[in-house]
Structure formats: structure tokens, C-alpha cells
Amino acid sequence: MTSENIAAGENIAAVAHFAARLRFETDVSDVHADLEAGTPGVIVIDSRGDEAWRQGHLPHAVHLPTARIAAGAADVVPAGSRVVTYCWGPGCNGATKAALEFARLGYPVKEMIGGYEYWVREGFPVRDEHGVRARPADELTTPAGAACGC
Questions:
Q1: Label partner for 66 (CA 20 to 30 A): which of 54, 84, 110, 141?
Q2: Tens digit of pLDDT for each residue in 44-64?
């Protein structure tokens, strides 16, 4: 399909679709940049289970499995915060379910697409029982020595 074949109504729908995705989704690079910059009001929630949390998580993340969000959100999310949820990876909809729970509770929320898997694959640091460490970036997700530039 070329741009000449897109009707005006379809273009309006496409703009609305992609704007909505960006309003409610973020990626690991943007989350990493916000955390490194100390962007105020951002709280990252790891919605995975206890065992997955112990295996490794984002260094600044708060652990709150999806099943505990309704009861525990007010205890771990400061008022006025913007929540970012993540789960295992793109093949898992746990972060979507967690984001839905936060939205139901009235929190502004985004889902971190790619999840923990892509955080690790991009070479960003993780925390586990041995401390904070990073693995080399996966060349299939991040060009060697460079960000994707998007």
C-alpha cells in the first residue's frame, strides 16, 4: 500500500491508533533513560512472581505481583506517581494485566513493552542476589556499541 492509497479517514484512525499506543506503552530504552535521568514521579512495577523477582529485576523496580496490586498499590506507589509495569517479556501479557489493575485503581500507567527480557537483551543492569550487573547487549536487539537511534 502506498501513501496515495490511504483515505483521509484511515489516516485519522492511524494517527489515533499510534498516539494511543504511545500514551499507554513505553519501551525499555525510554524507561532506562527516565530512570537514569531521575525523572520525578516515575515508579516501575515488576508484576512477576516471587521466584522471577529473585532471579533478577530492574534495579529501581518495586515488586508487586499482579494479584497483589489492588491490596498493595497504595502502600508502594506514592501519590501523584506515574506507574510503568513490566513482566517477563513480549510473549507474556502479565504487564498488560498489571497495567489494567493500576488503571482500574485510577493510576496513570504505561506498560513497558519487551519486559524484563528486552531490558536484559539491551544490556541494561539488573539486580539479583549478587548485586547489580549487566550482560552484554544482544546484537539482535541493539546494534553493537550504539542505541537504535529511534
A1: 141
A2: 999 999 999 999 999 999 999
**Which tens digits make up the pLDDT trace of 99-108?**
999 999 999 9
Q: What is the 3-state secondary structure of 23-89?
A: HHEEEHHHHHHHHHHCCCCEEEEECCCHHHHHHCECCCCEECCHHHHHHHHHHHCCCCCEEEEECCC
- Angular region, 63: left φ>0, alpha ψ -120 to 50, beta rest: beta
Q: Please give the model's pTM, rounded to 2 decimal places.
A: 0.87
135 contacts: CB under 8 Å, gap ≥ 6 = 120, 123
Question: Any idea how long the chain is?
Answer: 150
Which residues sit opposite 2 in a β-bridge? none
C-alpha cell at 79: 501519590
Q: Are 86 and 47 in contact (CB under 8 A)?
A: yes
Residue located via cell numbers 498516539: 19
Please report the pLDDT score of residue 139 as a whole number: 81
Q: Which of 130, 121, 132 is nearest to 61 (CA)?
A: 132
* pLDDT band of 147, cuts 50, 70, 90: low
